[in-house]
Amino acid sequence: MQKTVAVLGGGIGGLSACFHLSKSHQVSKIVLLEGDGRFGGWLSSTRREDGAVFEHGPRGIRPAGAVGRNTLNMVEELGLESEVLPVTYDHVASKNRYLYVGGQLHKMPSGLGGVVRTVPPFSRPLVQSVLKEILISRGKEEDESVHSFVSRRLGTELADIAIDSLCRGVFAGDCRKLSVRSCLPPLYNAEKARGSIILGMLLGPGPGPDVPPSTLTKRAAQENWAQWSLKRGLQNLPEALEERMRNGGRVEVHKDTPVMGLSTNGTGWEVRLLEIWGLGHMYVYCHCTGVVVCVFLSCSLNPVNESTDVCAIDFFLTQIQLEDGTIKADHIIAALPAKALASALLTAAQPLSQQLREIATVTVAVVNLEYEGSVLPVTGFGHLVPSSEDRGLLGVVYDSVPFPQHNRTGEPTTRLTVMLGGAWFQEVFGNPEEVTEQLLLDRATQAVTSHLGVTTPPIWSIVALLKDCIPQYYLGHWKRLENMRQYIRDHNLPLSLAGSSYDGVSVNDVIFSGRTAAEGLVGKV
Ligand SMILES: Cc1cc2nc3c(=O)[nH]c(=O)nc-3n(C[C@H](O)[C@H](O)[C@H](O)COP(=O)(O)OP(=O)(O)OC[C@H]3O[C@@H](n4cnc5c(N)ncnc54)[C@H](O)[C@@H]3O)c2cc1C
Ligand SMILES: C=Cc1c2[nH]c(c1C)Cc1[nH]c(c(CCC(=O)O)c1C)Cc1[nH]c(c(C)c1CCC(=O)O)Cc1[nH]c(c(C)c1C=C)C2
To answer: How far is the CA of 437 from the centre of ligand 1 (A)?
Structure first.
């Protein structure tokens, strides 16, 4: 039985951890600590009075796979089914995605025709690379950059254009630095298990986590959903979770409450019952200093195995320093960005905080634009720009196409989002602390003019600078995770890690990481 669990960070990862913890009676108290004035982290939507909705962070969630089903199950449990806006696979936004190469838009190849014909900007039919791929022998490295992996298996042209763009459109990152093992595990695992990406795709992935279907997941499968959003924007998901936490009465929620420090000892406290001199005494062994301290016990001892002298005790293990005091917890689920957790660890657990600090992040400028009328020359999800074409301009999402329900009511409009910077932010725009909103807005509107031929100015715009918003899983990320988790185990730290810094950046992955952390503590809920 865990007495008090503190969840640090009220982004979607921390909220998910609370949601799952609160279903268990193994925990008597759950405290959620969020530094900002609102919950939800990067899930952030502007809702205008005329009905228009603009997303500053994620805008679409995939229903596929175990993690996709897990999110939809949560949506159903929160009673949000009637709020869902699905986009099916046969919708134009699912079928059409573009690349902006050589100053022109090119539809990404899809369907059989797209694979057997030569489709610009590629110089030969995809089928050639695909057939050759099956014959290429397995790589021997434990990890490899995404670019090197795809060049080796499918050729440099696909790596330079398609994969470079894909990594910008998901991680806002540089495929020459990102790890294939951590960023694209299905491709890495297919090569390891089947010797080929193509065979791996044809034979399918192995069994994933067991997530039972719900009415909503069955509906998503029957109706062939490719992605979904919510009528009031994706921010509605953390809002519904916050409401559930507040009304459920089992979670103490605190916003505007940044965690300043954790006094979880550098290498943890191991509590051993070495000898008892009468009631109320025991020894605590501190790995950090090697000192055995005799303490007076104000808690109840409950020996679990007398022969090994190990006790289960009621004892607060961790102190959390806040701006105006401290709170104590038996266990911590940290759903903070890795660097924020490293800072909170202060001087404690040095090797762990060092590894946490090494998980890099990138900054993205998100510029939402609204135009009068229907201005797009093409229709689809949006277009991506490879780094060889324009390093600072990552891509443009045609938001009105998948989600016209988010347009204002009345006269037709077109909503677009331009994403800038990522791994190239500093190089192109300079210090994020000094860049002006006007510069970013100008750069975004110029791109809409040159890429899409839209010459009229936007009727409305908003610029959001998302500092350090997407973690970058660079080469060796898997090893870093293994080392960190080993350290936590070896030192019995009462700490679990959740959130986008570790096992996937999608909303689904992060929600699943919160669930995994909660269930690691209290068992399956
Ligand atoms: C521009 C953009 C577009 C995206 N698009 C998509 C998409 O289309 N589909 C998709 O699936 N995913 C998308 N993602 C990814 C997804 O949104 C994120 O990976 C996910 O929201 C991260 O959630 P999190 O809870 O791990 O982190 P965060 O949202 O960063 O939450 C961490 C929380 O911790 C708080 N915090 C930080 N320090 C402290 C402290 N010291 N004390 C207390 N609290 C603290 C922060 O305020 C924050 O609320 C996108 C991300 C971005 C940035
Ligand atoms: C141009 C920059 C970005 C765009 N979206 C993101 C960035 C950085 C962030 C992002 N997009 C997706 C995810 C989640 C990944 C997942 O596993 O679900 C994140 C963090 C979804 C996504 N977007 C694109 C792809 C290929 C994916 C993966 C899932 C899917 O296939 O739907 C492509 C894409 N992203 C952007 C554009 C303009 C674009 C393609 C035209 C914007």
So the answer is: 22
Confirm or reject: Cβ of 466 under 6 Å from ligand 1: yes
Whose alpha carbon is nearest atom 17 of ligand 2?
A: 506
The residues near 181 (Cβ < 8 Å, ≥ 6 apart) are 142, 143, 144, 188, 477, 478
- The number of residues in the chain equals 525
d(CA 103, CA 99): 10
Per the DSSP assignment, residues forming a β-bridge with 106 are 99
- First-to-last C-alpha distance (Å) of the chain: 14
- CA–CA distance, 114 with 150 (Å, rounded to integer): 19
Residue 108 has pLDDT above 70, yes or no: yes
Ranges of beta strands (E only) in 125-245 are 225-230
Q: Which atom of ligand 2 is nearest to the CA of 397?
A: 38
Residues whose CB falls within 8 Å of the CB of residue 404, separated by 6 or more in sequence, listed in order = none
Nearest C-alpha neighbor of 97 from the set 85, 86, 82, 87? 87
Query: The tokens of 222 are what?
Result: 């029957």
Identity of the amino acid at 410: G
The reply to whether ipTM tops 0.85 is: yes
Give the max Cα distance, the chain.
85
pTM exceeding 0.95: no
